[in-house]
Amino acid sequence: MEVNGQLALTVLMGIFLIAVAAWLARVEDWRSYTPLAGGGAVGSTEQYVSEEKPSGVIRWLTTVDHKDIGILYGAYGLIAFAVGGLMVVVMRLELADPASTLISNTFYNSLLTSHGITMLFLFGTPIIAAFSNYFIPLLIGADDMAFPRINAIAFWLLPPAALLIWAGFFPIPDVIPAQTAWTMYTPLSAGAGSGNQMNAGVDLMLLGLHLSGVSATMGAINFIATIFTERNEKVTWANLDIFSWTILTQSGLILFAFPLLGSAILMLLLDRNFGTMFFAVDGGAILWQHLFWFFGHPEVYILVLPPMGIVSLVLPRFAGRRLFGFKFVVYSTLAIGVLSFGVWAHHMFATGIDPRLRASFMAVSLAIAIPSAVKTFNWITTMWNGKIRLTTPMLFCIGFVSNFIIGGVTGVFLASIPVDLVLHDTYYVVGHFHYIVMGAIAFAGFAGIYYWFPLYTGRMYQVTLGKWHFWLSMVGTNLTFFVMVLLGYGGMPRRYATYLPQFATLHQIATVGALILLAGQIIFVWNFVQSWLEGPKVEDGDPWDLADDDLLTSEWHWFDRKLQTAVADGGEEEAELATDGGERIDDSQSSSDVSSDGGEPVDETDVASDE
Amino acid sequence: MASKTFDKETILDLTVNMVPLVIILFFVVGFAVFNPFGVDTLTSGLQFSIMVAAFVLLAALTYLSGKAIAGSEKTDVVYPPGQATVPGVKPLHEEHAEAEAELDESGDGDAVEAAEGTA
Ligand code: HEM
Ligand SMILES: [Cu+2]
Questions:
Q1: What UniProt keywords are attached to this protein's entry (chain B) (predicted)?
Q2: Whole-complex ipTM
Q3: Are A312 and A375 in contact (CB under 8 A)?
Q4: What pLDDT shows up at residue A331?
Q5: Residue A343 in contact with residue A364, Cβ under 8 Å?
Q6: A18 CA to chain B: closest CA distance, Å?
């Protein structure tokens, strides 16, 4: 009996193992003749994949390769961008008319809260991590990140974080979404008042936020260690690329800012669930604001510095020359990093804090505008008289600069106390920061996505669709958010689901702008997915012809080596195929046209007037 | 040593961070001389320590990074940023003269056009 039982178990286990092996073999086979979308990313490293990595889903679940993790972060970030974007589309539709028609006020508040948190923590930080994971090791000549496994853990904390943050929207009995806004001000977020903020949905959201903070901190430690210790010996502080500089600074900011958010969140959770009184006692509400904004302001620079790095890297490649005043950009990046910790109370000018304190925060806030302006001048000067090529990534870079100017200038006005007291908590503030988070940060993300598209997919995107995406985004952004600036001047308060009829026209224009943005992003998704699957294969390791201007950076050199070691496989035929789904036949007529987006220099005069 | 590291060029690069430092200093002096809200030990202390802390930290980081960058400029070959590991890329000082000549050549036509466009 005993023996038989054991035997049966052994046989069962054997069958199970054989089944697993067979399944793996099948997946392997299947992959070798149809590279899957994700796998296609490293399509030409396939030999390498089958040597060291399992295939199919298992590979993505177990990978510690910085490039794979970069792709995972990117996919995660884009999904979150879609979720957050659709949330705000619903809000904008509600705001098309002054009354509460489409959704309830409480649901509006829920969407508002989730939109902010999703965009900042689940899209912004991860999409930056996508670029930094993929490209920092390539740019600095490292084999991988310093701690590849920590890198993987940091990513895998994010999906549960998203589930927790969105938990309130799932059909779970008795759990409703948080309605605290992304700033989670107490006493509302501590559960006080007649609202329903004592609900577990808020607790789950706080836990999710905490998890995303842990993830960001782990990533930051990893990047600091990598950039300090893993550089190729030829890569010194004097020739470290600008994107690595911004990631290094960003990681420093994360290291000091996120643990503080974590602590504040824990205190809030204790207040909510264990009867502590951190934020309930006298001064508790202002304590929360201090803690939150000591994190919150650095957070906005955590989000904007790496995009600035991407633009500083990409923009000169299409201006045919090196970044003007490279070291100015490096030092001003570091300056922003330091100063961003000395400005937090400019978010609290209207709270009635001591006027002397307020004044000093105004001083530092005005000082921090200088390094930002310096960068802007450097970008413009780089383009000035340059050999501009208006490719899609370049268009997004120029859009970035243009939007950043408006976002930055509106910010400087807010930094002035008397102006802020008028405009605080109006749509002006919403306009200000959306010019930066959408107009600049997301634009730089798109610039990076298009610029490196040939590198991580091995294929080329559809040029015309890229341009449509840009122009719809540019027009949509400026329509939506400039109108918000005007609404703010008119005194329209932010965070309301309803409004006075006098604001209707401007709100409707903003809604139209948001729909234009939506149309642009749908084109982007189509272009991205379709080109990744079927776009013409890139055969040139330097699709943007950077070497012509001596501007070829390390990651493209890596790509070139990868292409050369890959087995040649009927690339021409692929290019033919792509025209079926592609927009313009002539795009893929010849292999050099594959990179036609980088091809022709465009009249500089156009660009100069763009600015 | 320090004076060797911080040559004229480096100092020039660092001016970019002098500007915010001067702005902060301006306000420190300004609030010290003219303080409409009066003086109170705690809040005035905080007021100045925020600005002074920002000033000191920025000065320190600027100094340290300037030292690291200028230092490795002295000791190592300097390639164009991000291009060090690309074969065939010349170090900056070698190609300097060459690049300048090239720029003059290719920049001419464009420069005229652009000047016309923006004038
Ligand atoms: C040029 C430097 C900048 C200055 C001087 C500045 C100034 C300000 C000020 C004073 C406020 C508070 C307005 C109020 O609530 O009354 C504010 C809000 C905000 N800024 Fe900026 N800003 C700058 C750059 C940025 C950047 C680069 C970002 C984003 C990456 C950003 C994102 C935000 C956000 C998200 C808020 C709103 C926070 C909230 O209340 O929900 N700002 N800014
Ligand atoms: Cu701020």
A1: Membrane, Transmembrane, Transmembrane helix
A2: 0.79
A3: yes
A4: 93
A5: yes
A6: 46
